[in-house]
Every structure is written in C-alpha cells, then in structure tokens.
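Troubleshooting: if your tokenizer reports a length mismatch, compare against these two reference records.
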Amino acid sequence: MIDSRIRALVVDDEPIARGHLRALLEDRGDVQVVAECGDGRTAVERILSLGPDLVLLDVQMPELDGLDVVRAVGPDRMPPVVFVTAHDQHAVDAFEVHALDYVLKPVHRARFNGAIDRVVGLIRSGTAVNRSRPLAEALERLTPPGADRLAIRSGDRVLYLRIADIDWIEAADDLVRLHVGKTVHDHRATMAEIEQRLPASRFLRIHRSTIVNVERIREFQPWFQGDWILVLADGTRLQSGKSYRKRIRDLMGG
C-alpha cells in the first residue's frame, strides 16, 4: 500500500518545541515526520538528502537561521515552508520569502492545524510548487546590506563564511568558486546571484567570470586595449574584461 502522507521535516533549536510540533503532527493522519533537527546546518543537509514535501522551520536559530537555511538550499530546491516564529515581524519576513504559512510561538493546536490543513491542500493540488523565481527575488531583498557572513553549500556541507575572508570568486560552469586563502569552495549559484549577496562597497565584478575583494588588490597593471591585470596580495593575477573597464577606472579614481 502506498503511503500518501505528506513527508515533513521539523527544524527548531529547542528540543521541547520540536517535540511539541512532532506531537501535533502525529495527532494528524495526513503528515509523517521523516526527521527532525536542531540547527540550520543539519536542516540543509536533511532537506537535500531526504527531499521532504514540507519543512516546519524555526526562524530564529543561532549561527544559521531559518532564512539562511532557505538561502543555502536555494530557491530551486527548497520545499514548501511553514515558518515557526516567536515574533510577528518574522511572520512578515516569512511571507516575503513565499513561505506557505507561519505559526507563532507558543504554538496553539487550532492555529497550527489550520495552517497545516491549508498547506497540505496546496501541496496536493500542486499549487505549492514553481515558486523559485519569486523566492529568489524575495531572498535578495531580505539579505541585509553589509551582512558579514555568507551561507553556502559546499558538497554535503553548509559553510558559514566570513565575507571579509573571501579573496576572489570565479565562475565554473554552473558553479562559482570562492577562493578563501589557499582553500577553494565550490557553490552552486550564478555569478549574478552571488554578486547580489555581497556588499558592493567591498566586492567588484571585473569580468563576467570574476569578482574580487577590493581590499586584496595590491596593484593594477595595464593590459591590452584598455584592460587591466589586477595583482592580489598573494600574487594571484586576475584580468579584467572589456565591459568592466569603467569600474576599474572608477576604483582607481578615474
């Protein structure tokens, strides 16, 4: 017999809260809890490995919060989300990232079941899918300017990199490669997506396939036809592109 229940992942850093959510779901007959976890990094791993139909996601968690989890998984892979939050402002943020619903803590059975009823109906009708583009755009709006850390997927791990530690970034097929000292992290994203997540005051795109941390630039060397070679503090040499010449000139003060 095929199990038609919705497969749910419960994510909350408070064990008592996770237990309460699990108990509420187990009282229903249409949702199966396939796993639970207490931190954002594990949540990303479980989402990617288990592929749940639904994620109940705590907004406020240390180090990697609920919105960071959505960013790390990526809008194209993120299952439908019901955010669990203690603050109404986070509920507004939940709808900004196109979560299907939210519940406020302390979670009450009537409100919880109403939200789950609605979400289960949307999932089964197929109207809870194909939200990747508006989700991506909403996440870009919600990424705080000057944020000092960047959550990225690297293989089966989620890394929370200090933005200031990134030296430069290059495109590689459908990945971007983040160079941090002698370490290189591959992350599935486009250059446009990663550029929008970085502070413009610190990072400059100098080529369609290259972004550089301007604080790492040691010198500029003229190249052919108005292009430049940028030499970084560690000796790395990066070539600018024709479409980005004005950016280089502006950086050098004209």
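Reference record two:
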Amino acid sequence: MNDPKNRRRGAFRLAVLLAGSVAAAPSALAQAVFNPYVDAHYEHDSNVFRAPNSEANIVAFGDPKLDDTDLKAVIGMDAKYLWSEQKLTATVEGRRFIYDHYSNLDHNEYLADVALNWQLTSLLDGLVEARQEQTMAQFSLNNSTQLTIDVDRKINLTANLNFNPDWRLETGVYDRNLKSPLQFYPDLIERDVGTHLGLLNRSQSNLTYGIIVDHISGSYENAPTVGSFNQTSAQLTLRYTASGLSTFNGAVGYTKRDQDVAGGNISAVTGLLGYTRQLTAKTNITVNVARNINSYLAAGGSEIDLSGSVGVTWQATYRIGVTATVGYLHSTFEGQVIPGSNAAGRVDKLPTESLKVTYQPLRRLQLQAYLNNQSRSSNVAEDNFSDAIVGIEAKFTWL
C-alpha cells in the first residue's frame, strides 16, 4: 500500500463505500427514488478544432473543412436515497458522440458521481463525494491536434461544525487526479490535493460573513520537467439576502502560487462578486465577476483569469423558458515548460454569447434549442478563432 496509485484507488473505494453504506442501513424512514433518462443532442459546430482559418486547418489536419455536425446520445440515471437526516445521491451517465465528417472524433464518454450529505445532530454535518468523468479534451486549450480523452477523478470530504450558535467552522479536503494526455507527455497526470478551512458568522438571518483559507498542493506526474506547485489563498467572504428578491455574494483576498519552473511563480488579488435579482414573477437576472489563478495544463504553467457574465431568464409560461447570457474571459498566462506550447507572454480575450429556449410539452419530455457563440482574440495569432454552435436537444425522463 505504499504505492501512491494504490493509496488513491483505496481512497476512492473508501469514499464510495462510505457513501453507499447509508443505503444498506434499514430504516422505516428511508425513501429511494430512481429516475432513468435518455437525452439526444444534434448540433452544428462552425469550427470544430477552434482553428484560426481554413489554411491552419489544412496544416494541422490536412482538411480545409472547419465545420461539422454531430450527434450526442446519452443514457443515464439519477438516484436519491433519504434516510433520517442523511441524503445519498448518485448520477450515472454514458454518452456517445458521432460526427458526420470528422468520424475520427467519434468517441464515448461517461460520468459516475456518488455523494452523501450527512448530518449528526444540528452541530455536525458534511459531505462525502466520489466523482469520475471521461470527456474529450477541448481543442481550444491547445492540448493536442488529435482526439484525446481526459479522465477526471475527484474525492471530496467535508465536515462542518455549528456552534455558539451563530458560528460555523468549515473544513474540507479533496484529492483530484486529471489524466490529460499531451503530445510529448502521453501519460500526463495532474494531481491536486486541496484543503479548505473557513470560519463563518450567521448572527443575522440575512447575512453571512467570514474568512476562508484554501491550499492546493499540485504535481505533474509522468512529466519530470514540469515540476510541482503550491497555491494558497485567503479571502474575506460575504453573502447578503435582501427582502427575498435580491442576493449578493462576494469575496476578496489574495492568492499566491509557487511552482518549480522558470516563470511559474505568480500572485494576485483574487475574489468574486455575484448578484441575483428577481425582477418580476417570471424574470430574474444574474451578474457574476471573478478573478482567479488556475493551472494551464497545456503549458505546465499558470494563468490569471478575469471573468464576467450577465444572464437573464424569462419563464414565459410553465412550459416555455428563455435564457440569454453574455460573458467575457480575459486570461494572462505565466510559465511555459511543455514543449510546443504557446504561453509565454500570451494574453487571450474571449467574449461569449448564448441563447437557450426550453419547451416542456409533456411532464417527462423536455425540448431545447440553443445557440452558443464565442471568439478568441490573442496576441499569439495562431490562437485566434471564432466559433458558433447551434443545436437542438430532446430529453425524456422516467419521473
């Protein structure tokens, strides 16, 4: 059991067993709900590989065609089990992607997520969660010019103590393993071990405030030249609800990241600001702004992301809903170790727009039409692109 891989597998199995053990306990108050579903998306993507133009597509893939249509078929099940004060939830999903022109991109994906929200009296509560998802790597991240499959596994444990009675102490730890193959490191794994500590005051019924400290210890396995990193952030946080119609939440603090590569060290003021307002009985608006330090896996470095979005939802009738969102992402990259990557001195600007119309003709059937548009402008010309996705979706649920 000294092998780190064996320890991680053991921890993953333990988390699943802890979450599942509640289902084995007999109780007159237990209640189980299972909801199978099938889902199908058919969409047209104007720029599958996020290339700057057709000429670049020919160089990278030998084909000038930028656009393609694809079918995404999904079969899954949501489950919920209630036992006394405990709540066990699970989602299992299998996906199949089929492309009309670029058939070499056909692939399978899956999701498995099990979570136990537990409570021992009113003083102690927490979460045990195990999640694993397999997805196609995004071409916009420049990880590869070929189909690559990411496998993201995360185990999350939290325990919270309510005392005095207005104070709440939050603690948590997680272990995350992201398998993300790159051209020169086909077995690359980013492993993060994170810890969380928060002290919150809830003395006012509509106000919560406090301080939160997070630490991440990260490493890049099977990529010896990349090195490891440590990231620590401390933030003051506040959440305020005004008259049940408006909610404010915000945080401001400082984040410092140290990495064992040239140019990898980075620090910045970080935080978030969110606002939600119920404008009418049928309409609400959401505004979010955030500034964070994240890993840029494709270069083995770091990035500072400043993001913002404004979304409006209109529930025209109980059957028809419309959501429109505009967003913006400004990314500054630091450090570059992965061969062939483009990060040193790079700055990206990415505006996005989306529109979604949902129609519920039957209780178990939901139809959706959507449009997503994005365009990236960068001081590195080969990273520029524009892309539009238009699609329709039909989802049938058992319940």
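Descriptive notes for reference record two:
- The radius of gyration is 23 Å.
- Residues 4-24 form the longest helix (21 residues).
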